[in-house]
Amino acid sequence: MIDKDRELINRYVYEVVKRVPKEQREEIELELRELIGDMSENMTLEQIFVKLGDPAVFARKYREDKNYVIGPEYYDNFLWVMKIVLICTWAGILVSAVVKCIVDYREIVDVIASGLSNAIMGSLSAFGCVTLAFAVMERQKIKVDLKREKVWTPELLNPIPDKKARISRGDCIVSLVFIILFSCLLIFAPQLFGAYSVKGGELAYVPFFNLERWRFILPVFLLGMAAGFVDELIKLVTGCYCRIVMLSSIITNTLGILFSIIVLKVMPFWNTNFAKEVAEQFDDTFKLKVFWQNKQVLGWDGQRLSKIVLTIIIAASILEIAVTVYKTMRYGTDVRGQN
Amino acid sequence: MGEEKDLMTNLVSELRRGTLILSVLSQLGEAKYGYALVQSLEEKGVEIDPNTLYPLLRRLEKQGLLSSQWDVGESKPRKYYTRTPMGDAIFRELKAQWERLSANMEQILKEGEA
């Protein structure tokens, strides 16, 4: 055997051996040299290397490595945990961004930018941490069955939800988007809710709400919105009327009523000067004046308005609870299989 | 066309993968070294790449089905593998399983032809 061949064999052996665990290196090296020696009796060195293939592949077969990060055994749990962690991360970032907006409402662009970058970084780190944790469990063979404590049996089959019990995902998403948009408007531009007129070529408005005290009113408003957001998320995840959705709907709507009472009855919610400001602003707008006068705007009465709005909110909330309870009882099936 | 060929190669190698351990165990009633095993299997029409066989032998040894011994008496050292008593028992059981499987498959494929 010439020196050049010996050198090539050394190189090949080295390329394999450096990729296997230390304690096996010596023996694997001996095996490889034995194999190459045996093969060289009726093959050229080049043929041998072609036959043995890429040293990295050879080494991987020795390592009995897993060629995947998360294997099929863990995949279901991995996806499930990932969804929950991501939803929690986004919810946390959303809440903290909303709070920041309230505190630093003067630097809203910065707050939004940092919120977005937080969302991206947060998603990436959440994804990384979950994947890492599962990759470690996969390799250490730590058994976790988060989703199912018991062995699956046919009794665990859930009845297919009745068509009328299914909750449309589209509806949920529309509601979620609406809640976010409405919250943004309440945070960034509450003055848009008001009466408008064009005065001297400029748009003038008179807000309905008491913007001077808005910093105290807004958080209560947003808490109600957040409850609605969670409720819609639960609907989106379960996809049908069941006990969880029913409970969540009862809690959310009750909270909604409570918050409405606090905002409308306890807090100085309405712009008490609305009537006066409208009268000043719209003095020269004949049509509007007539309209507002007809509506007895000069007798603007926050108390009465609160009563009307509150009645509508309470009626709508009770109706929603009633519909949810009815649908759950009538068609709904519990996710765990009992009715 | 290339895709079909790849698919075929995959399917064939998957089919053969299950028979590998049984083929290897069948040959190691008496001690053999790795390359002799490759050659004896090849003679019988069972092709196995050395880069599959050598790691497989180590794994079977770790699982207790094979035992190994280095023979340093000859010009170059060689590692000889042979079945352990546990390997014998498992080989017999696997062989019985295979015979049943192969009989069933033959039956199924005959029906498929008709």
TrEMBL record, chain A:
Task: Tell me the superkingdom of the source.
Answer: Bacteria
Q: Which UniProt keywords apply?
A: Membrane, Transmembrane, Transmembrane helix
Kindly indicate whether the keyword Membrane belongs to this entry.
yes
Where does the sequence pass through the membrane?
78-99, 119-137, 173-196, 216-234, 241-264, 308-326
* Name of the protein in question: Uncharacterized protein
TrEMBL record, chain B:
Task: Specify the domain of life of the species encoding this protein.
Answer: Bacteria
Write down the Gene3D superfamilies for this protein, in alphabetical order: Winged helix-like DNA-binding domain superfamily/Winged helix DNA-binding domain
Please list the residue ranges annotated as the Transcription regulator PadR N-terminal domain: 21-91
A Pfam family it matches: PadR
User: What InterPro entries does UniProt report for this protein, alphabetically?
Assistant: Metal_resp_DNA-bind_regulator, Tscrpt_reg_PadR_N, WH-like_DNA-bd_sf, WH_DNA-bd_sf
What SUPFAM superfamilies does its record include? Answer: Winged helix' DNA-binding domain
| PANTHER family with a match to the protein in the record | PADR-FAMILY TRANSCRIPTIONAL REGULATOR, TRANSCRIPTIONAL REGULATOR RV3488
| Name this polypeptide is given | PadR family transcriptional regulator
Instruction: Give the species.
Output: Faecalicatena faecalis
